[in-house]
Amino acid sequence: MALAVKIPGGLSAESEAELRKRLPGEVELDLSPEPSTDCEILVAGRPDAEQLDASARLHTLIIPWAGLPPSTRELLLERPHLAVHNLHHNAAPAAELALSLLLAAAKGVVPLDRDLRRGDWTGRYESYPSLLLEGRRALILGYGAIGRRLARSCAALGMEVDAVRRRPGQVDEAGPARVHGPEALRELLPGAAALLLSLPHTEKTESVIGEAELALLPPDAVLVNISRGPVLCEKALYEALSAGSLGGAGLDVWWRYPTSEEDRNHTAPSAYAYQDLDKVVLSPHRGGAYGQKETERRRMAALAATLRAAAAGEPLPHPVDPAEGY
Ligand SMILES: NC(=O)c1ccc[n+]([C@@H]2O[C@H](COP(=O)([O-])OP(=O)(O)OC[C@H]3O[C@@H](n4cnc5c(N)ncnc54)[C@H](OP(=O)(O)O)[C@@H]3O)[C@@H](O)[C@H]2O)c1
Question: How many angstroms separate the CA atoms of 79 and 98, rounded?
Answer without folding.
Answer: 36
